[in-house]
Each structure stands twice: as structure tokens, then as C-alpha cells.
Amino acid sequence: MVHDSKDNNVLSFSPKRNGHNPRKIKPPPALNIPPVTMGFAVLLLGIHVVVSLTGYMNPVLESMIFSFLGFTPNALITLEAFSPITLITYALFHASWLHVGMNILMLAAFGAGVEKGFGKKSYLLIFWGSCVIAALVHFAIDPHSTIPIVGASGGISGLFGAALLLLREQGTPMKLMPLILVWVGISALFGFMGAPDGSSIAWVAHIGGFLGGLAITQYLRR
Known about the structure:
Elements: E1 2-3, E2 11-12, H1 35-57, H2 59-69, H3 73-78, H4 86-89, H5 97-118, H6 120-141, H7 153-169, H8 176-193, H9 203-221
Antiparallel strand pairs: 1-2
């Protein structure tokens, strides 16, 4: 603080001359993604990179990874090569770069808001619970399928359901039933059309994960 000798009633301020600049306000980060969501995104991408490199060097080994760690409905009936852990591990693997890329984008879009709004523990319960429900609904519709399913879409669909409930809690006027019907219709449409890269879509699992996310979130918010 410096006193102005010309006017005893005026005070002026000057920066310190000790080499330190005034503290600057940092701008917000360009990607404001919370830690659990970011960690999931990095994990899914990293696993896909490893599996893709494995497939490039040894396609048979890649096929074995999907067979043993993907969820195969028929294995649950015969109990051959079935492990309960596949109800979780199937969500960590993806069939293509387009598949993992789209899921990471959706994870960032829906997961970030849910993690910030409901907290980390609820986020994890909603995501993994929706993954399990998605797999079981897929099993209920097609129990004799011998094709393993992979992908985090069921859990991400559950996060979308949680995000809708979060918006409603925050005062956004909406009716859930029309949105549920729209989601079911879109999921079924994509299921019949297939993915742009030609792979099939387990659309029933998407619907199961979405409804599971709604149910789990409702239960946690009581």
C-alpha cells in the first residue's frame, strides 16, 4: 500500500516488487470429467488397445478372451465354461474401435453428471448393477444363444436412466414413461439395423440396463 502525497484522502495500491506476480485465476478445464468416469474411460480404452494388439498377433487368443470373459447365455444353462464373473467382465471388452469409442463418449456424457450428482458409491452401484441386469435380461430373452456379448452399453444405459432421474430431481419437468418408450423404441430400431461397422447389437441388454438403472437409482434415492 502506498500513500499518495498529493492528496491525503486518497490511497493507491501498487504491486510488490519482490519478483512475485499477483495470483492468476485459472480457467476451468476443457474436459471437466470427474475421476471415476475418467478412470472408466481410460480403463475401457486401455483394455481395447491390449485386446486389439493381441488379436493382431494371435487372433485365436483374442477369440478365447471374448469366449471366456464375455457373457454367453447358453453357458449359464449348461454351466460349461461359465463363471459368475462374466456378468461383470463382459462390460470391459468391446468388439471394435467404433464400439468402444461410442461407449466412451456416452459414458462421459451420462456418467459425469451422475457421478457429480449422486456421488461415487451410487455411481458404481448403478453402473455395475445395470451391467448385471442387462446381461440377465439378455439371457431371459435368448437363453440358448452361444454368442458371447461384450460392451459397457448396458451399464451406460443404466447411467442414462439415472441421469434422467437426476434432472427431474433438479427441477426439470419431464414425464418418465414417454422417455422410457422412446428409449425402448430407439434401442429396438438399432438392434434390427445393426451397428454401422456391421456387428450385431444386443438391444435387449440396452433396455434391461436402462430399466435396471432407473430401478437402482429409485431405490438408492429413498
